């Protein structure tokens, strides 16, 4: 069916796909906001047309990036609250449900921060990877408790989200040491915690987060540094309860190797002495750019949520409580 999605929704979808809006919680917030905008601006004349537009908007948002489950969880939550007999009732229920979702998200992050802060002692040094608003909430709450915290911030190639983390920690007054990803093992000797966020948590307690998290966790285990994952329950992946795996996003190779740098490796195709390629497009160099990886539960010490902190192996109990057994997608109905 050909349903028009509000331009503002298409714009949000593009911002998510291009990572101008990024990070699992921020993506969820933006998606809920976009559904509210769609509801407000809808010119649908019948309840059926309104519902179809909202579902189309949700699909557009859903198709942007595959790994952070907070996105489908947000869409599902808002669409489940779309109720009413008239377009005006549907509009009202959808916008208030989206507002409720966004308030809950903010509240959950604050509560999670207070719980996570209990794990941080005065004077502790925390090593971070990528940029996680849930992880930063723990540090912020520890600072509010009057604790002195320092941070070792991994740069996080290729997109350097570590720079965002470093900037926000400096704004909070936290002394920051910025390192390249490859220096992590060396600097673990100076760290009391590894603190990361999550894009998805699977039912077995596996943590799906920025590429490099799993290697960091293995090194931390070897060094005896506890690994703490800060993840609101919106990061829990319902489909994994029935054995589905989480899709790992593969991003554009140019994030890793720009065209001009590629030419430095394989030439620009004009060098006649080079080995003849199998076909015109194949220069024999493959660049892969997975955005996320999976850290097995045995390398994670605690998952901190707004509902308390859990050893990864017991997260499934919380998932059953929150999701029950239903995993149908309202935008596919
Ligand atoms: C972001 C990332 C973050 C999680 C958690 O990856 O891996 O650690 O999304 O973030 P990307 P938050 O930059 O590719 O989106 O705690 O803010 O939800």
Automatic annotation (TrEMBL):
Residue ranges of coiled coil: none
InterPro entries to which the protein is assigned, alphabetical: IF-2B-related, IF_2B-like_C, Initiation_fac_2B_a/b/d, M1Pi_N, NagB/RpiA_transferase-like, R15Pi
Active site: 130 (proton acceptor), 199 (proton donor)
Reaction equation(s) it catalyzes: alpha-D-ribose 1,5-bisphosphate = D-ribulose 1,5-bisphosphate
Protein name in UniProt: Ribose 1,5-bisphosphate isomerase
Keywords of this entry: Carbohydrate metabolism, Initiation factor, Isomerase, Protein biosynthesis
Gene3D superfamilies associated with the record: translation initiation factor eif-2b, domain 1, Translation initiation factor eif-2b, domain 2
Any Pfam family matching the protein: IF-2B
HAMAP family per the UniProt record, alphabetical: R15P_isomerase (MF_02230)
Example GO biological process: pentose catabolic process
Entry's family note: Belongs to the eIF-2B alpha/beta/delta subunits family. R15P isomerase subfamily.
Documented EC number(s): 5.3.1.29
Isomerase among keywords: yes
Region feature (Disordered): 266-298
GO MF assignments: ribose 1,5-bisphosphate isomerase activity; S-methyl-5-thioribose-1-phosphate isomerase activity; translation initiation factor activity
Chain sites annotated for binding substrate: 22-25, 65, 209-210, 235
Organism expressing this protein natively: Halopiger xanaduensis (strain DSM 18323 / JCM 14033 / SH-6)
General remark: Reaction proceeds via a cis-phosphoenolate intermediate.
Function: Catalyzes the isomerization of ribose 1,5-bisphosphate (R15P) to ribulose 1,5-bisphosphate (RuBP).
């Amino acid at each position: 069916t050909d349903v028009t999605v509000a331009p503002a929704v298409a714009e949000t979808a593009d911002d998510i796909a291009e990572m101008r809006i990024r990070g699992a919680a921020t993506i969820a917030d933006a998606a809920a906001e976009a559904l509210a905008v769609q509801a407000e601006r809808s010119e649908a004349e019948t309840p059926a047309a309104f519902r179809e537009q909202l579902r189309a908007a949700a699909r557009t948002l859903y198709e942007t990036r595959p790994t952070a489950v907070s996105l489908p969880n947000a869409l599902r939550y808002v669409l489940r609250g779309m109720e009413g007999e008239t377009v005006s009732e549907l509009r009202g229920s959808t916008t208030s449900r989206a507002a409720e979702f966004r308030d809950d998200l903010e509240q959950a992050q604050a509560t999670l921060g207070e719980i996570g802060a209990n794990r941080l002692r005065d004077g502790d040094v925390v090593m971070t990877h990528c940029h996680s608003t849930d992880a930063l909430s723990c540090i912020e709450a520890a600072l509010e408790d009057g604790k002195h915290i320092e941070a070792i911030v991994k740069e996080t190639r290729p997109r350097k989200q570590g720079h965002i983390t470093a900037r926000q920690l400096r704004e909070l007054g936290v002394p920051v040491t910025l390192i390249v990803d490859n220096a992590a093992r060396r600097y673990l000797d100076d760290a009391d915690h590894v603190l990361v966020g999550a894009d998805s948590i699977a039912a077995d307690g596996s943590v799906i987060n920025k590429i490099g998290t799993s290697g960091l966790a293995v090194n931390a285990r070897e060094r005896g540094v506890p690994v703490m994952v800060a993840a609101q329950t919106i990061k829990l992946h319902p489909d994994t309860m029935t054995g589905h795996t989480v899709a790992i996003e593969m991003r554009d190779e140019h994030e890793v190797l720009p065209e001009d740098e590629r030419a430095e490796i394989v030439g620009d195709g004009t060098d006649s002495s080079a080995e003849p390629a199998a076909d015109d497009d194949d220069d024999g160099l493959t660049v892969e750019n997975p955005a996320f990886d999976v850290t097995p539960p045995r390398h994670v010490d605690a998952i901190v949520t707004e509902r308390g902190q859990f050893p990864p192996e017991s997260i499934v109990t919380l998932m059953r409580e929150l999701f029950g057994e239903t995993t149908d997608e309202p935008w596919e109905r």
